[in-house]
Amino acid sequence: MTAFITAAATIGEFRAGGTDLSERRRSGRSTGPLVDLTGLPGLAEITPTPDGGVRIGALVTVEQMARDLSGYPALAATAAALATPEIRAVATVGGNLLQHTRCTYYRNPAFSCVKSGGDGCPARTGVAHHGVADDRGPCVAPHPSSIGMALLTYDAVVEVSGGPARTVAALFGDGSDGTRDHQLGDREILTAIVLPPPLPGERGAYERATSRRFAEWPLVEAVARISVTEGRITTVRVGVGGVAPVPLRLVGVESLLLDGAPDGPLAAAAAAATDGLRPLPHTAYKLPLLRAVVLDVLHRALTGPDQDAAGAPRP
Amino acid sequence: MKVGAMKVEINGESREIDDDAETAVELIRDGLGLTGTKLVCGGGVCGACTVHLDGRPVASCLLPATALDGHALTTVEGLGSTPEHPFQRAMMAHDGLQCGFCTPGFVMAGSAFHDRWRAENPGARPDREQVTAALSGHLCRCGAYEGIIAALQGACAGEFDEPAGAPPRVEAAAKVTGSARYTVDVTVPGMLHGLIVRSQRAHARVDRVDLVAALAAPGVSAAVDLLGEDRTVRYHGQPIAAIAASTPATARAALAVVAVGYTDLPAALDVTGAEGAPVVYTDKAQRKAAPSSAEGPPPLPTWWDGNVRGPATISLRGRRAVRMLDAAAERADPGYLAATFRTAAQAHTALEPHATLADWRADGTLTLHASTQAVAHLRDAVAARWKLDARQVHVVAEHVGGGFGAKTAMTTDTVAAVELSRAAGAPVRVVLDRAEELIDGGSRPGTRTELRMLTDGDRLTALALDTYGDGGVSIGSQVAALGAFGYGRGPRRLRDFDVVTNIAPSCPFRGPGGAPFAWAVEQGVDELAHRRGEDPIALRRRWDGNRKRHALYDTASALPRWRNRGPAASGTGRFRRGVGVAAANWFYFLDGDTRVALTVRGGRLLARCAVQDMGTGSRTVIATAVGEQFAGVDVDVEIGNSDGPHGPMSGGSRTTPSIAPAAVAAARLLREQLRQRVGGTAAGADGVRTASGVRAWPEVLTTCEGALVTGERGRDRGGFLVPFLSMDHMRIGRGMSGSVQVTEVEVDTLLGMTRVLRVWSGLAVGRIWVPRLARNQAEGSVIQGVGFALYEQRLHDPNTGEILTSNLEDYRIPGIGDTPEIDVHFYEQGWEHVPGGGIGLGEVATIAVAASVGNAVHHATGWRPTELPIRPDRVLEGLAR
Ligand SMILES: Cc1cc2nc3c(=O)[nH]c(=O)nc-3n(C[C@H](O)[C@H](O)[C@H](O)COP(=O)(O)OP(=O)(O)OC[C@H]3O[C@@H](n4cnc5c(N)ncnc54)[C@H](O)[C@@H]3O)c2cc1C
Ligand code: SF4
Ligand code: FES
Ligand code: FES
Questions:
Q1: pLDDT digit string (tens) for B479-491?
Q2: Residue B785 sits in the same domain as residue B739
Q3: Nearest CA in chain A to B571
Q4: Mean pLDDT of A22-31
Q5: Phi and psi (nearest 5°) for B28?
Q6: Taking the CB of the first residue and of the last residue of chain A, which one, N or C, has fewer CB atoms within 10 A?
Q7: CATH of A2-195, one of 3.40.50.10420, 3.30.465.10, 3.30.565.10, 1.20.1300.10
Q8: Is B57 in contact with A105 (Cβ distance < 8 A)?
Q9: Residue A147's CB: how many other CB atoms inside 10 A?
Q10: The CA-based dihedral angle spanning residues A206, A211, A213, A219, taken in that order and rounded to the nearest 10 degrees
């Protein structure tokens, strides 16, 4: 515990794997002292909890998550699909949730905006092709965390040293605060994510829309978890990213599917993915794309990945 | 941040390290001098900086230096000074490299994958998906991916456990072990680090450049002004001044205190060329000084209207062409087509950035280490600019990490390094960072082409092209003009315009103008064939008089994938496949003044030439050309130094047809000289015939130490196209090279992603000197074409003119997972008038690729893309129509 208190009391920005921070230091978006979290004890393990769930330490790497969470296929698939093998080897789950936006303007020292401590948003009147499909506040950069999106579909609890535990949704807020990428306090240290036990017979799927095959940030991404009991969909969870300043869970889509037959019409449910979204002038294309990605993950979560082979007819 | 003393095991040796580097890559390269590890993107995207941390590959550019404490670090040097790892051997044997700048990173990732794979799957061969996923954190701008994939599969299957024979590329061992030194790796004692102050405005008068505070900062030795006489900046990022300091950190600190006073001028930031827009160049002198993106002859003089320059017109009965097209449109002729095609600006972004180390000595000599495609030309340009005798200037470029056209002229890094070295009286190195590289380090101009064409079926009856080049402040877009060189001699009007803006300039890029030309015209041809219900290859064969290309059409139309392709848009599923074809031709340039010197040294041969190797294989071509004349003899090649006999610039595909004949000429001369020395009757490839039998060359050489000859490139049979014109040593030869690409794509109609699955690339460039290297270059050309077709797009902020795609995350080049299976076919006849019988291929092989992708997408979906890149959003929008 004292290690945490010492770390929290040391002035400086926390550093875990450093894959986000190092880039921001190069671009001048992080200056000042750093406090390494890597030595903190007990944070690099995935441990079972008494109720059959798992506790994922904040310093667990993305690679570990992809490898060791086979009971959580949607989460493991999300982890396996992001960034590159070299990044996944060192990037931590804590850093992934708390990383800063990838907005081009934010990462370019020639610009200033609400998120970098200035005023306004040059992306709004500039190039916002990668911007949000739901305008929720002053910042129109989509939230970068794929893992945050996946965790939203679990009733995950975020444990914090120096503050109360909270839900993943609370960690991110509603997207109206354009000045920050998460709502963790400056001196709070994220210590672990606690997941409830997997659902019985749970299946999951993850997909992202990109131009290139690998290592590209998604235009939109989606994850689905589904369990089917006695011919009915008994649980369904859908998360999406690239859409809003925070990762989103699509309760509307879920409710259309719940209790239905697994071979029922998915397209109608997927169509609800964009209900109520307010795109930017340059991101209207994301609406059909989002419906398509959601349809894809639902389909794959229900039928298994083999149905995705080239040329297979879609529902 | 002060790291403090750390204990690190480095390449097997325990060390205590005290260094204040923030990231591991700085510690490794600058602190430890282990320069095999490269820094390219600094953002975890390209993998060039990959090292092993406790045996696992990680990106050292994002790894905090402190993360090394208590761990084992292995760099490429740690794998051994000779290529001992099976994956290194496999990379050499499969030629999984060109310029080699990305190679150490691939070697580190691939060797780790190999070791793990063999432990877990002994005897098994990983599939393409597995190896590309494992290497997905790496980028190779040369596009050597096919060789890399084959190498990793072969190594994992145990095919390279023993050392293989000599690799196809002579310098491969240096590149896979990380010992090859590039300009960014060269340091000399007392070297200072130079940085460039760049404009923060798109258009402004610079009233004041205050370097006093910077000069007073600790460690700063020199500061120079780089702005031209008119004291105006015309794009965001334009160089204004440069400073030199003892370390990169002190230079960065000093850069921050340079004060520049601007008076803003209204900026032209969109390419509409609209009347009333602020004017970029207001007088003749300014216009004359505008940079050019044209290759070869300078752009023709033409007139200006505001920001619109042109048209530069080439007409073959142009008025008649327009009348015919108007009439055809009027009567709705089914053989008439009008369409607009757009291409995006494509950045060269060679993985080694522009870099120069200049050492201007008190004795008046100036030595440059430069990442250049033209050591000899750069020497002359530097001598002219600083009024030196060319003999006082020495340009060295031992290895060059890619260029693609952006390193042919003298660039800012060189100007700044020379000026700073003169001012400081010390050697100064200037290395552009990735953002600078992507801002004004080079790009192909964007274009808009208005295409109109008419056919009666048998031929192209009339053609009109108006192309508007979008090269920022630069001029010289030559796209429409290329319409003069193909598909018969029917009436045509070809007009090129430049629309200048206050955006960073373009420069020549691999087949300048060719790719946008093909994007428009080759899709137009395809569309007309489609409307006529005709095979697009058959239509081209009728229109196209080029015999060499006819041979390619024959082979292409016999390909099963072409014969079985079925009607357009016949698929119904989510994933639709289609096959498209496109053709191109290109000029044959050469450097007629090229000379190669050949000496007998230590029982071996040493060939010297002031040419450079940026990955295209100059060393290997010379070694091969000489070696063929001297059986059993080892040939050393010394290039990359302007002190050698004159050599060509590596641009305009002129290197091989210049150096290979010169090397052969030298070899023949030497054979003759040696024959005389030993009193033989005749000399052949095997040796000298004497009364007592044939004396083999290796034995003859031991008796002729020091013999020296110089071979000249000589003339082609029938001379050159423009006999008297030699522009900066460049000549235009007779004949045009040809290419035909047959490309298969798969379009995901749900998510809008287009994947290129297979490419057949037929090239008519005559005799191939080194087949594996030529294939590698042809494959790389396809991959750059795929990037142009699907991903690459330079973007700027519409309000400030700042380039936004200034990192390799936002500027997307093709990765290893985007590599199609590529089948290269060489048609080797038709160049018998050229000594050696072959010409260059780097440009012709890339030009038609994007058009073939466009035609394949149309064949797959029925939707014709007209704007590049073919992004997912455009695909979905197109399919929804
Ligand atoms: C090429 C590339 C592609 C990528 N693609 C994706 C993608 O598709 N999806 C995706 O989600 N990510 C992607 N990433 C981002 C990557 O996942 C993150 O950089 C990484 O997860 C950050 O983890 P880290 O441990 O390195 O964080 P760090 O860089 O160490 O820290 C990031 C931030 O989190 C804070 N922090 C870290 N840990 C804690 C803690 N325990 N308590 C409090 N604060 C903490 C730090 O102060 C810092 O502000 C990509 C990155 C690259 C380079
Ligand atoms: S989108 Fe957000 S991060 Fe990007 S410029 Fe606007 S406010 Fe800044
Ligand atoms: S330089 Fe480190 S990944 Fe590109
Ligand atoms: S060989 Fe890969 S970048 Fe040149």
A1: 999 999 999 999 9
A2: yes
A3: A311
A4: 93
A5: -70, -50
A6: N
A7: 3.30.465.10
A8: no
A9: 28
A10: -30
